[in-house]
Each structure stands twice: as C-alpha cells, then as structure tokens.
Amino acid sequence: MSGLAATASTRATAATPTSRPATVLQVFLEFLIIGATSFGGGVVAYLRNSLVSKRAWLDDKGFVELLSISQSLPGLNSTNMAILIGDRLCGLAGALAGIVGICLPGGLLMLAAGMVYHQHGDHALVTAALKGVAAAAVGLILATVVQLGKKSLEHTADAVFVVATVLGVNRLHQSVLTVLVMVGLIATFWYRPRKTQNGANR
Amino acid sequence: MKEIPALIRVFAYLSLLTVGGGMAAFPEMKILTVQVHHWVTFPQLVHIYSVGQMAPGPNMMMIVSIGDWVAGILGSIVVVIAFFGPTSLLTLTIGRLWKRLERWPWRKSIQEGLAPVSIGLLLAGCFTFARGAVTGLDTAAIAVGTLLILLKYKINPALLVLAAAIIGALSF
Asked: How far apart are CA B73 and CA A29, in angstroms?
C-alpha cells in the first residue's frame, strides 16, 4: 500500500510543468546573472531564488527533484543544475546556455585572478592575505559539510560509511576513485532494495 | 602546448570524482597537479583554490587559472571543457532517463549509499586542503572562527573570506 502511495507521489514530482516558457537567450542571461552575482558559494540557493521564486520557470518540487539528481551524480551541483534546468526549459540548447552562462563570469574572473597571482603571488603582503583566506576556506568547507550532513545523513550506518571514506583517502592513501567505488558499492548494497512488509528500510 | 593532452586527461578524470562537490576531488587534484605533473606547488594550489572561494559561480572555476598557467588561454579553455564536458553529458543523459529510473529499485539504494560517501569525500578533501592551509595557531583560529560564525549566523561566506584576507594582511 505504502509502495503505491510512494509511486503516486514520485509521479507527481516527476511531472514538472514549466509555469512560464523561457527562450534560450532568457535562460542564458538568467544563468549569466546568477554566475556573476552568486558570491560566497551556495549557488543552489541563488538558483532557487531566481528560477523558482522570481521567474517561476519551475516549481519547488521540480527544483528539489532536479537537485537530488545533481547530488547523486558526479559534477558540481551548480553546473549539474544548470544542465538539468536548461534541458527541462529549452532542451539541449538550453542546457548549453545554462552551463556556459553560469561558468562564464567566474571563469573570466579566475583567469584574471590567476594572472595577477602568477605575477604578484610571492609578495609578502599577498602571501599573508592568502594565508588568512585559505584558513577561512577550511572553515567554509567544514560548515558546508556539517550543513550537508545534517540534511542527508539519517541512518547510523551512514556514520560508518563517512568514517570509512575519510580513512580510505587520508589514512590508507587510496585514490579517491578507489574509495568512491569501494565504499559506494558497499553502502549501496547496504541500502539494497528489500521486500519488507512495512518498508522499514526506506 | 605539449601539456594539453595531460590537462585534458587529468581534469576529465578529476571531474568524475566530484561527487558531492568539487572538494571531493581535491586529494586527487593535489597528487596529479603537484606531485605527478608539477604544474603547481601545493601552496599555489591552496592559494588559488582559496581565491576561487571569493569568486561568484561554480566554486571550482580556479581550474581556469591552472589551465592558463600551464598552457595559456587555450589551456584554460581546454581545462573547462574537460572538467565540465563529461559530467554534463552524463547528467543530461541521466536527467532525461530519470522518470524511467524511478521504477528501478536500485536507484534509491544508490542515492542512499552515495550520500554518506560524498560527505566523507568532502571531509577527506577538506583535511588534505587543511594540511596546506592550517599551519599554526593563527590559521587554526581563523578556520574555527569561520566555521562557528557560519554555523551560528546567516552571513555571506564571501564576506568572512574577505575579512580573513584583511586579518592575514594586517598580521603581516
């Protein structure tokens, strides 16, 4: 019974009618603006704000569904979202417009920043400032991990998989690919589909 | 010019490891760009990644800088295509198949299984990064301070990173 209900609800989220049609140019410009203004990471929040709240190009359910696809595939969440949303709105051209738009401003900025760093990166003042920036980046990444963990870790077994992954990379010095595949397979098998009466594993 | 094929190989490979976020690929990025190909030093890699945190858009656009240092503008374009091309094609394909995959019982298992692994990879990347970024009590204090402020208050992280730059420069 619960299986039926689950199928029905996933059907509903899968059907994502776009509330308002968008052209490829509109998609490109919107992603370009997000790519130029989303300072401080958390691009996904900027995307939701702009595409769901402001433009109403897709609804919240559709957005969350696309986000869950983005998160379980390789690739950055922000660029995967650009591909998926662009594709839903305008097909292949939309996907291309989305990813080029979101990458272009930051890419040009980092090209310039890289050139400046290459010439002046060894100045004592620059090194001192970057020392502070790098330290803050550690705090920023940890905060992201904590927030992500609160949202997506529900089972006790998850803690074991997190620790196994960290140890595999940092202590056993295995390649990220090896650890990803090994722990990923074990964890996937742990959460394998089971035919329990009440779906307790779900 | 002769480094172009290596740039393509390295960054296409790295992109496949970015499950959960760009930081997941960082340990491998360090090995390949610093130890194997000697394109950058570890401090340079840590620095340019940190600068990238202040830029808008996807947080791995620092790869553009590495591409430019190794092979000029062409290198930076090649790196972007190699890094975003394969995963984008995969995402496009899976995105279109998603409705059909919904009935596949293993899809949920893979999603549930990958969630803790992706968080572990981010954490592992962060630890590798921290080895280059947290070098003493002063930098440890900035890292912990940033973490605590971000967990407690809703503040734009770019501002904190900027503040840390100023603190760093002043302490010089």
From this structure: 24
User: What residue segments make up the domains of chain A, in order of their start?
Assistant: 1-120, 123-152, 154-202
* Separation between Cα atoms, residue B151 and residue A149, nearest integer Å: 13
State pLDDT tens for residues A106-153: 999 999 999 999 898 888 898 999 999 999 999 988 998 998 888 888
Residue B20, helix vs strand vs coil: coil
Complete DSSP assignment for chain A: -HHHHHHHHHHHHH----SS---HHHHHHHHHHHHHH-TTS-HHHHHIIIIIIIS-SS-HHHHHHHHHHHHTSBS-HHHHHHHHHHHHHHHHHHHHHHHHHHHHHHHHHHHHHHHHHHHHTTSHHHHHHHHHHHHHHHHHHHHHHHHHHHHH--SHHHHHHHHHHHHHHHTS---HHHHHHHHHHHHHHHT-----SS-TT-
ipTM value: 0.90
Touching A: B residues 79-138, CB under 8 Å = 80, 84, 87-88, 90-92, 94-96, 98-99, 102-103, 105-106, 108-130, 132-135, 138
Cα(B85)–Cα(A168) distance, rounded to whole angstroms?
Answer: 28
